[in-house]
Every structure is written in structure tokens, then in C-alpha cells.
Automatic annotation (TrEMBL):
This is Major facilitator superfamily (MFS) profile domain-containing protein. Gene3D superfamilies: MFS general substrate transporter like domains. GO terms for molecular function: transmembrane transporter activity. GO terms for cellular component: membrane.
Length: 325
């Protein structure tokens, strides 16, 4: 993830001086770099065990975990659970808490992640700035967004194993809530207030100072949007993808992961289509108040997500099994 962002972040910056065709070519650099790096990555121990390559599975565990006593326990647990995780999930099993609880958590995470508004905000960034009269040249939007996302994802990557997933998710939801409410209240109150203030100062001797003060308010949407991106990128952005891979049952992980991605992008598509319709009919502040309400739901929902920091996949699955007893 960090490699991808490190490679892709300079691309918006290059867009200031490079034609879009060369930008499209430059976009292949992260892909090629990932292909090269993946060629040095061993297959997962679970995959190697499934193919009967137990010696290579041990080597992969040593490469991933280091030569210590813990990986022996993990290797034995993988072997024991291999036959179980390759058995198809029956309808009766889906009704069991250790199956449906992680499925429900994962699907809701993907759904709530998109409902927090990240895709419409990024897609209609220039529309939002134009509507809020932000004094910013259009070509600099992507540069700022890319730089902020890069720094935020780097922070999340190096802190989620130290701070914990749940703490970052809570912080992320609070930051996004504050940003959405700031944008909503700004759009609802400030333009009218600025208009009335401008009328009042036109007849006064302090017109220049007042105009400067009013113009200074237009930086608020830019700051609020950047703060929102920071909040999303340190928590509900990358961590929901990570948790999807961690808490899903091993034997249902492939199918359900695809379903989660489908739910995520269908939600993003619908929000993107509806955003402008709501803006035109009810005003631009309404979507942001809705996104803020969803962030409150995200914050509450975080308390129902188990902490996976420092746990193996087998331990996480065991957690859901033992909780039903």
C-alpha cells in the first residue's frame, strides 16, 4: 500500500507540467514496480500447505515471521485447519455465529466506509470548491489531495500495529465527522453571512479590510476537505480492507471478499450518481450532514469490531468460535 502511494503521489504533481497522455503512461510505473516486488514474495504458507508443499510452507513462515518458536505453532495450526477451511460452507454453518458475525461486520464496514462520503468528495472535489468559492487554481487540487493521502496512509501503515485497529478507526470516524459537519455548517451559514457582511461594509470606510476577512473564510472548505482525507486515510480507508482479510473465515474468505468489494463499489457508484441530484434539489450542505451522521454510526459500529492487532488468522477465527459458547 505504501509503495503504491509513494509511486502514485508524484503523478498529480507531474500533471502540472506533463500532458495527460504522459500522465497515463506514468500511471503504469506503480503497477510495474509492484509486479517486480511481488516476484520476490513467497507464496502464502496456507497456499503451499494446500498444494502439499509442506517444506516450502515452513520456509515461507520463517521468511515471514523469523526463525523463532512461534511459527511452529502457527504451522501446526495451519495444517490442522487445512481440511476444515477447504470444506465448502453449508447453509447451516452460515447461520452459526462464527460464520455470520464476521460476514456481517465485513459487509457493514465496506458499506459504511463508502457512505462516509469519500468517493463523492474526491470525484466532485472541484465542484465543491467552486460552490464554496475556494480561491484555488484547479490544477493544484489533485496535488494537495495526493500529498495528504500519501502522508496519512504512511502514518496509518506504521501505527496500526502499534496503536491498534480500533483506536485508529475511532480517531478516523471522529475526524471525518468534524470535517463533514464543518463543511455542512460552512455551506449553510457562511455564504449568506458573507453576503450580508459585504452589503454592510460597502458603505463603510473599512471595505478593504472587511473584504479581505470575508475572502479569508473561503479557506475553510479546503482545510476541512484535507482534514477529512487525513481522517479517512488513517483509519476507515486502509484498515477496513485489512480487517476484511483478517476476520473473514478462511473457508469463506475468497467468495465473501469479492462480495464485499461488489458492495463497496456499488455503494460508491450510487452515491456518486445521487450526490449532484441532492445538491441541486436540497443544497450542497445536505450530503455533508448525511455523511456526518454516517460517521457517528461508524464510531458506534467500531465498538463491535474485534481488535486483531497481534493475532494470527487462526486466533481471530478461534475468537469468533469461542464467543458463541
Amino acid at each position: 500500500m505504501v509503495v503504491y502511494y509513494c509511486c502514485s503521489c508524484p503523478l498529480p504533481t507531474a500533471g502540472l507540467v506533463v500532458p495527460w497522455r504522459w500522465m497515463a503512461v506514468a500511471g503504469q510505473v506503480p503497477v510495474l514496480l509492484m509486479i517486480v516486488l511481488l516476484s520476490f514474495m513467497p507464496d502464502s504458507p496456507r497456499f503451499l500447505v494446500s498444494k502439499g508443499k509442506e517444506d516450502k510452507a515452513l520456509d515461507a513462515l520463517v521468511w515471514l515471521r523469523g526463525a523463532n518458536a512461534e511459527y511452529w505453532w502457527e504451522y501446526e495450526r495451519i495444517k490442522e485447519s487445512f481440511s476444515e477451511q477447504n470444506r465448502p460452507v453449508s447453509w447451516r454453518e452460515i447461520k452459526q455465529p462464527y460464520i455470520w458475525k464476521p460476514l456481517a461486520i465485513t459487509l457493514l464496514m465496506r458499506f459504511l466506509q463508502q457512505l462516509s462520503g469519500v468517493t463523492p468528495i474526491l470525484v466532485y472535489l472541484q465542484v465543491i470548491f467552486n460552490s464554496t468559492e475556494v480561491i484555488l487554481e484547479p490544477q493544484y487540487d489533485a496535488v494537495i489531495v495526493g500529498a495528504v493521502r500519501l502522508a496519512s496512509v504512511a502514518v496509518a501503515t506504521f501505527s496500526m500495529d502499534k496503536v491498534g485497529r480500533k483506536v485508529l478507526l475511532c480517531i478516523s470516524a471522529i475526524i471525518m465527522l468534524a470535517s463533514n459537519l464543518t463543511l455542512g455548517f460552512y455551506i449553510h451559514f457562511i455564504p449568506q453571512y458573507s453576503h450580508n457582511s459585504a452589503i454592510m461594509v460597502n458603505s463603510s470606510s473599512h471595505e478593504g479590510l472587511a473584504t479581505s476577512w470575508i475572502s479569508g473564510l473561503t479557506v475553510i472548505p479546503l482545510i476541512a476537505t484535507m482534514v477529512f482525507i487525513v481522517g479517512y486515510a488513517i483509519g476507515w480507508g486502509p484498515i477496513t480492507w485489512l480487517l476484511m482479510a483478517e476476520i473473514l473465515p478462511l473457508k469463506a474468505r475468497g467468495t465473501v471478499s469479492g462480495l464485499c468489494v461488489l458492495v463497496s463499489w456499488l455503494t460508491a457508484f450510487v452515491l456518486t450518481k445521487v450526490f449532484l441530484l441532492v445538491k441541486a434539489q436540497y443544497g450542497l450542505e445536505v450530503p455533508f450532514f448525511f455523511f456526518g451522521a454516517i460517521c457517528i454510526v461508524n464510531l458506534i459500529f467500531t465498538f463491535f469490531i474485534p481488535e486483531t492487532k497481534g493475532r494470527s488468522l487462526e486466533q481471530i477465527e478461534s475468537y469468533f468460535r469461542t464467543r458463541q459458547k
